[in-house]
Amino acid sequence: MKTIIIACGAGVATSTVITSYVTQLLRDNNIEHRIIQCSLNEVRMHIDKGDLLVTSMPLKEKYDIPTVLGISFLTGVEVSKTMEDIVSYLGN
Fold first, then answer.
1. How many domains does the chain have?
2. Average pLDDT in the chain
3. The whole model's pTM is what?
4. Catalytic site residue 8?
5. Using CB atoms within 10 A of its CB, is residue 14 exposed (0-12), middle (13-18) or buried (19+)?
6. Which residue in 4, 6, 7, 8 is the catalytic one?
């Protein structure tokens, strides 16, 4: 099972939208998953449990797991590319 951390500024509205897209994508690709939704300030608390980090904005800090900028889920620009990146990082 893969664990995806989805983070935005407050951990509420934007991350909920991104979570919706990512959940459907993972279901469509038969990837067993667990999602941790949080604020950007809480990422450090969860990073050791994650296989992938999806954020609503670029991060200043680098982590030891792949990170995908999920802003495309909000703008509608290059959604397919973001989806491809997520699936490829999760090894499916």
1. 1
2. 95
3. 0.94
4. yes
5. buried
6. 8
